[in-house]
């Protein structure tokens, strides 16, 4: 979830680590059954904080002329993976994965949260509502809208 929100694996790991420390500090005494929704609530809070900080930093960079620190090219991406038996299927899998990530990024924040918590993390409606800080009805609405949007965006991959 953090990687989708940041589009940067290292930033995502930092956010998850901050969320884990905050969760342990604040909710360590709770029962294990409460942990999943409370952790995801903490994680979502950290993701939103990161997005706000990043937006503020980007506004200052525009004013002061700061640019990218590199060209963003990773030379290791061009090295062949010896574990992949079929390059065509690997390319197709990569294309589908990229399409799914792009479609998820197009969803509004609350729809993306509901979809990821329900579908990818396997939380129930009540747990997702706790994690998102909203009602169960809102979770159902956000999830339904997300599913319909994703179906239309990913129609060609059915």
Could you walk me through the main structural features you see in this protein, from its secondary elements to its overall organization?
This protein has 158 residues and is mainly alpha-helical. The chain folds into two domains: 1-67, no CATH class; 87-158, Arc Repressor Mutant, subunit A. It has helices spanning 2-6, 9-27, 32-64, 87-106, 109-120, 125-132, 136-153. It is globular, with a radius of gyration of 18 Å. The relative contact order is 0.12. It holds the Pfam family Sigma70_r4_2.
Number of strands: 0
SSE string, helix = H, strand = E?
HHHHHHH
> What CATH architecture of the largest domain would you give?
Orthogonal Bundle
Q: How many separate helices?
A: 7
Q: Give the overall shape.
A: globular
Structural class: mainly alpha
- Level of helix content? over 70%
Pfam families: Sigma70_r4_2
InterPro entries: RNA_pol_sigma-70-like, RNA_pol_sigma-70_dom, RNA_pol_sigma70_r4_t2, RNA_pol_sigma_r2, RNA_pol_sigma_r3/r4-like, WH-like_DNA-bd_sf
Family: Belongs to the sigma-70 factor family. ECF subfamily.
Domain RNA polymerase sigma factor 70 region 4 type: 99-147
């Amino acid at each position: 979830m953090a990687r989708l929100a940041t589009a940067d694996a290292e930033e995502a790991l930092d956010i998850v680590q901050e969320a884990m420390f905050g969760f342990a500090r604040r909710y360590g005494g709770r029962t294990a059954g409460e942990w999943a929704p409370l952790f995801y609530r903490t994680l979502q809070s950290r993701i939103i904080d990161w997005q706000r900080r990043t937006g503020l930093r980007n506004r200052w960079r525009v004013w002061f002329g700061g640019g990218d620190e590199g060209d963003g090219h990773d030379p290791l991406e061009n090295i062949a993976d010896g574990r992949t038996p079929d390059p065509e299927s690997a390319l197709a899998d990569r294309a589908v994965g990229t399409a799914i990530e792009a479609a998820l990024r197009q969803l509004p924040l609350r729809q993306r949260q509901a979809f990821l918590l329900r579908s990818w993390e396997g939380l129930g409606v009540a747990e997702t509502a706790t994690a998102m800080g909203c009602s169960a009805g809102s979770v159902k609405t956000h999830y339904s809208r997300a599913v319909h949007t994703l179906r239309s965006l990913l129609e060609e991959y059915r």
